[in-house]
Amino acid sequence: MAVVGEGLHKVIKNGSIPQVTIHLLQLRAGQLLGSTYFTIREAGNLRKAGESEERITAVATWRDATYFTDAERVALELVEAVLTPNPSRERVPDELYAKVSAHYDDKALWTLIMAIAHIGFFTPAALIAKPIPGMPPGRNYSE
């Protein structure tokens, strides 16, 4: 698990997308998944990056908030599309793909995909093993 996690970390830190965008996307993913661990972790990462409490709080209601760039908005829209069930149509329609592609080149698009995959990979651990929010990796599980 650690090897795959390290590989995903390396990919999402390749510089093609600002790390703040990755943290915003992963915070929204944590909210959608109902994971306190992911939500606290990513809110903390955003604070460490100097983001305002208003921006962090507004991630939950990003569609109505004025705090996000167009590129950040499309990243948030993409993670919602991937993680929200949509039984009547495809989750990522061509129109959304075109919006994402207008803001992100191929490398950046794959970085977004891997940032979502990173959350997806660790979701079972976050929901089943219940890591302790706010504790560093490796010391975040009770004995």
From TrEMBL:
Keywords recorded for this protein, A-Z: Membrane, Transmembrane, Transmembrane helix
A Gene Ontology molecular function term of the record: peroxiredoxin activity
Database matches in InterPro entries: AhpD-like (IPR029032), CMD-like (IPR003779)
TM segment ranges: 108-129
Domain Carboxymuconolactone decarboxylase-like: 9-80
Keyword presence, Transmembrane helix: yes
Gene3D superfamilies in the cross-refs: AhpD-like (1.20.1290.10)
Name recorded for this polypeptide: Carboxymuconolactone decarboxylase family protein
